[in-house]
Amino acid sequence: MDLNKLLKAMLVALPIMAISACSSTSESETDAMGSTNGSGSELNGGIQTGGVGGMLSAEEQQRQQLDDLRKQQIIYFDFDRSEVQTEFAAILEAHGTYLVEHPSVRVLIEGHADERGTPEYNIALGERRAKAVAKYLQGMGVQPSQMSVVSYGEEKPLDFSRTDEGFGKNRRAVLVY
């Protein structure tokens, strides 16, 4: 028996095992103390009873992972650098996949810098960061017409603390849909 068949057999058996493991509360007692939670499952004295929910297929799990990654819209950069770090590849791949699958969707890529350096230098650095993200997405097949780039330089910091950690939060590109 392969793993999928075994899992399906277990899913069929679990509701039966859950029913046989329920307490012996009579129906009238259940009516007096039970209520439903909106999904049809009974709540008896704080204990939820009911069947096992369906498992996600591998494709559905992958789609869920991509959706979760796409919720992360900030790509951070090292000091005075504009290269996309490998630790942000999964996030950008999730955004790239979404944009390729939805060619009518447009994204604005904002480039930011910390306050060290001249305002002119930081505007240019923010632009290089935003363009690096756009180039990465374009390499995945995202159309240039779907992306716009803007640099705010040091003008819109996330963190005003003037610490190394704060500066690190301000060195970023943000994907805005």
Automatic annotation (TrEMBL):
SUPFAM superfamilies, A to Z: OmpA-like (SSF103088)
Keywords attached to this entry: Cell cycle, Cell division, Cell outer membrane, Lipoprotein, Membrane, Palmitate, Signal
Membrane topology: Lipid-anchor
Keyword Acetylation among record annotations: no
Stretches the record annotates as Disordered: 27-53
Signal peptide limits: 1-21
Gene3D superfamilies hit by this protein: OmpA-like domain
InterPro entries given in the database record: Bact_OuterMem_StrucFunc, OMP_bac, OmpA-like, OMPA-like_CS, OmpA-like_sf, Pal, Pal_lipo_C
Chief location of this protein within or outside the cell: membrane
Compartment list: Cell outer membrane
Keyword rRNA processing part of the UniProt annotation: no
Annotated NCBIfam families: Pal_lipo
Protein family (similarity comment): Belongs to the Pal lipoprotein family.
Assembly information from the UniProt record: The Tol-Pal system is composed of five core proteins: the inner membrane proteins TolA, TolQ and TolR, the periplasmic protein TolB and the outer membrane protein Pal. They form a network linking the inner and outer membranes and the peptidoglycan layer.
Summary of the function given for this chain in its UniProt record: Part of the Tol-Pal system, which plays a role in outer membrane invagination during cell division and is important for maintaining outer membrane integrity.
HAMAP family linked: Pal
Annotated PANTHER family: LIPOPROTEIN YIAD-RELATED, STATOR ELEMENT OF FLAGELLAR MOTOR COMPLEX
Official protein name in the record: Peptidoglycan-associated lipoprotein
Organism from which the protein derives: Shewanella glacialipiscicola
Gene: pal_3
